[in-house]
Amino acid sequence: MKKIVLFVLLMCVITSFAIASEVSFYYTSQAHQKYWHYTDNGIRFDWYKGNVGIDLNATPLLRQNPLVLNEAWMKFGGKTFGVKAGMVWYPFGNFENLPSKEISIFQPTALGLKESAVMLDFCGMFGDFEWQAYWADAGKIAWNQPYDKPAFIGARLTYSMADLKIGGSVKGKNLISNDKDYPDVGKIVEFGVDVSWLIAKSVKINVQGYSVQKALTVDETQMDLFGIVSYEKGFDLPFVKLTRPYVGYFSKNGMDDNNIVVGLNMKPMENVFMKLEFNHDSLGDGSNVLTLQAGYVF
Known about the structure:
mainly beta
């Protein structure tokens, strides 16, 4: 089994060299995730080229579990109007898909903002506006339930002007169902707003706020927000070269709890990226985690 795992990982690396993308992994000091191969998305392979995108989580292989496909889509059409078909990240919020593009390691997955599903994602650009409208298969209520969730529908609109970007997202969950026997799992509309501003080509402020569903079986929403401030211009340090410091605040559970992160985003070589991040979690008595992420862009 171990030989098969190593062979699959080797083929992923070789394929990455062939079609130009990136590979990344990270290691955390968190007690129950002490080793990177026990961490979700600890090893990621990403292929994005032209009208095809694939995001593969290879971590489960080292636990002798199946690979996890975060994204796998093909785009049809042009810049003004097109459609992505396949497994796609929900267009909800202002998030980067590639680890090399994300300034921080920690992402607000606790809110369910960074999720993917099988969908048709209609997209395009009109002047300074970028739009997306999608229909997504939400899957089953639970693995042991025979009922499928009604499809999710949603949209996102982004306005860009110089170094300022303003976006809005909306997602309708469980709104459409013609099955009278379908159990009520919560019909809800989620929405969010986000503002990203690069000031004087140096300091970037990324602030986002969301109203999201508390749980699948609860018809109630909760407000959460997060913000990251980063010094995008950066400065040079010995060995790690270009370094961009950042600090972030992520609320969760209706702003009752939060994560506070402080980190360094480094680029020691042209195609290499590294991040060192301290994360304080307010849950319980509070926990402090130090995480290192590294990757290579092919």
